[in-house]
Amino acid sequence: MTDRWQIHRLLAEETDQRLQLLRTPPQSVLLVGADADISRRLLAVRFPQAAFAEYDPRADFLQAAAKVRGGGLWQKLTRKTVPQTCQSLTAPLPEAAADMLWANLSLPAAGRLPEVFQNWARALKPDGLLFFTHFGRDTLEGLKGRLKNLGIACETPTLIDMHDLGDMLADNGFYDPVTDTAKLELTYRRAEMFWQDMATLGLENALRFSDPAAARDAVSALFADEGGLTVTLETVYGHAVKKRVLPQGENLVRFYPRG
């Protein structure tokens, strides 16, 4: 595996296909999680009128995205720039500022998911759209089992079941959450490429080993003994709508045509 961003690209392209049914194109989009400009390029083709702003807690990810854009035809032709901000996922975003918030594999960098979802809900306009990708609880299940047999425990508190993820969205500012999953099987020949992907995908942060040094040594031993390592990622795709908050004592009434 040589392309550092190929999983981001795969998940972004899959999510982009789900935008075909949108009736009203967004005018303002918050990108939470820089991915080498992959997501921004896809969305700019679909929504050429949209203005973008990009946030990420990882300065090197922002720099990589800016570097790609700086040499791209889009920026040269339009003379547009994408404002970037390096901040944690729970640091306040501009309130009620966006029609869409797009987060491609930024959640693995989160500490606690509810605070992130609350922050995202505040950043969206009423009925604004959230689209995100994440990893589920079965991610790296086989490897975690092998390490457990060696006495190395691994907790993944932010990699949860997709149904629990939907419930969490509903409890933290969103309605009509929809989530679904798929499985990816990856084979590595070198340990350093495996750990590079773990860092790029944010899984290095999401995997909390009881003994991180022992875990790395054990993975290196697996590569040395077996000549490679095959792992499975459970990918999660989700979208939801920002709840409309009404003044106290008021309720939203919806009318639907018959049939």
Structural account:
The chain is of the alpha/beta class. It has one domain: Vaccinia Virus protein VP39 (Rossmann fold), CATH 3.40.50.150. It is 37% helix and 25% strand. The protein has helices at 6-16, 38-46, 59-70, 73-78, 113-123, 141-149, 162-171, 191-200, 203-206, 212-226; strands spanning 28-32, 51-56, 84-86, 98-104, 124-135, 154-155, 174-188, 208-209, 229-242. The strands form two sheets. A seven-stranded mixed β-sheet has the order 3-2-1-4-5-9-7, with helices on both faces. A two-stranded antiparallel sheet has the order 6-8. Helix 1 (6-16) runs parallel beside helix 2 (38-46). The model has no long low-confidence stretch (mean pLDDT 91). It comes from Neisseria chenwenguii.
CATH superfamily (homologous) name: Vaccinia Virus protein VP39
Radius of gyration: 20 Å
Question: In the CATH hierarchy, what is the architecture at level 2?
Answer: 3-Layer(aba) Sandwich
CATH domain class: Alpha Beta
Strands, count: 9
InterPro entries: Malonyl-ACP_OMT, Methyltransf_11, SAM-dependent_MTases_sf
Keywords: Methyltransferase, Transferase
GO molecular function: S-adenosylmethionine-dependent methyltransferase activity
Protein name: Methyltransferase
